[in-house]
Amino acid sequence: MPTRGIPFPAGDPELGPAAERAWRRQLLDRALHAVSTQVSEPTVFDGDPVQ
Amino acid sequence: MRVVHYVNQFFAGIGGEDSAGSGPELRDGATGPGRKLASLLGDEHEIIATAVCGDDYAAAHAEFAAELVSGARERGAEMILAGPAFTSGRYGMACARIAAAASEAGLPALACMHPDNPGLGEAAGTTVVQSGLTARQMKDSLERFAAAALKVAAGEELTAQDGRIGPVARANRLADHNAAERAVALVITRLGGDRDATEIPLPDFDSVTPAAPIDDAAQALFALVTEGGFVPVGNPDRLESARATKWVRYSLDGLDSVDEGAFMSVHGGFSTQWANADPNRILPLDVAREMERDGAIGRLHGEVLATTGNGTTVADARRFGMEWAAELRQQNIQAAILTAT
Q1: Chain A: nearest CA to B340, how far in angstroms?
Q2: Residue to test with chain A: of B287, B290, B292, B334, most A Cβ within 10 A
Q3: CA gyration radius for chain A?
Q4: Res B60: pLDDT
């Protein structure tokens, strides 16, 4: 899963506190989708899961 | 020679994955594949004992190897053999560690595994001979293992022809032919079809088979792990900021987030000002707790496992990964989220 910067893999200091936290939630929702998906080779998860 | 032979819990007949946490022990005589190995070694050598350890235990407790080698020496062992481990990663790592510990203690030693076994990377300073891919090739593997062991027992050096694999210490020696002659000979060898012929073997990077997906995140136990140099303020265990040789673990019990002034990053590869101002940017505990509360995940593991991924050697990184995987499996964790910097 690509993120927005090496020094803050689970954040984005450019955003305000509430927006940054929403971004972090979005990342972890994407992580849940990734670990629930069958893969057979290196796979990039850069889109948000379809609910 | 008096030989001690190492096998894992499975080949010792203790059990499968359910017994992988069993600790190190020495048993009298040969066990499992050791019986066939003993007969192949002939009358001049005797397997006096079998050293056994569960794969998860061995991966999580590196000191098991020195403990077993010391026990083997007390029983009068003159040589240590380990395996064959085929492509079983934790077993291969255990065999490499046993052989390395024996070599360090001055005992001739030999491990046996497949060239794709990730444990091969741990074999620096000791000798490894090639096995087949799986236990279906047990017979051939034991024959090659025994033939190589007889050479090691006789004090001879193993070569690629004997099935030697893995890191080979480079030593100066006088060659019979000068560099130009050897280079031409190598070109001819390669033109003749041997595309891998070389005087300087390069490291071989393995590929990793992805784990199966989890069925239901809402029921699963999750762990948060990171290579972001994540530690409590003050870095009590002195985790390195570069070239880490260890990993650390800290309790997350009772914490709803990881706050400024309580946790920090010691990573030496980037500016840590943003991580230190809000450590949830390195370890997303605040949101993970929210997901635990609202039922998106089953439960969060009570500890974070952390190291620093900055100039870390492949061998150390592979070891951390295997130790983390063994640790997480022992805790019945189904998924891990690894934040990488």
Answers
A1: 6
A2: B287
A3: 12
A4: 84
Per-residue pLDDT, B204: 64
Task: At A40, list the tokens.
Answer: 């057979």
pLDDT at B212 over 80: yes
> Chain B residue with minimal CA distance to A6?
B341
Task: Test B287 with A35 for CB contact under 8 angstroms.
Answer: no
Per-residue pLDDT band for B205 (boundaries 50, 70, 90) equals low
B interface with A, Cβ–Cβ < 8 A, is 210, 212-215, 217, 226, 228, 269-275, 277-278, 280-284, 286-288, 290-291, 296-297, 335, 337, 339-341
Question: Distance between CA atoms of B167 and B124, rounded to whole angstroms?
Answer: 6
Assigned architecture for domain B2-165? 3-Layer(aba) Sandwich (3.40)
Q: Which of A13, A25, A38 sits opposite B287 (nearest CB)?
A: A25
Angle between helices B33-41 and B138-153 (to 10 degrees): 50
What would the pLDDT profile of B222-279 be if each residue is shown by its tens digit? 999 999 999 999 999 999 999 999 999 999 999 999 999 999 999 999 999 999 999 9
Tokens of B204: 């071989």
B28 alpha-carbon distance from chain centroid:
27
Residues in chain B: 341
User: Could you report the per-residue pLDDT of B27-43, keeping only the tens digit for each?
Assistant: 999 999 999 999 999 99
What is the distance between the alpha carbons of residues B233 and B266, in angstroms, rounded to a whole number? 9
**For residue B269, what are the CA distances in angstroms to B236, B265, B304?**
20, 11, 21
A49 touches chain B (CB under 8 A): no
Task: State the CB neighbour count (10 A cutoff) for residue B243.
Answer: 12
Count A/B contacts: CB-CB distance under 8 Å. Answer: 78
Q: Where are the domains of chain B?
A: 2-165, 217-339
Q: Which residues of B touch A38 (CB under 8 A)?
A: 212-213
Specify the 3-state DSSP secondary structure of A27.
helix
ipTM for this model: 0.95
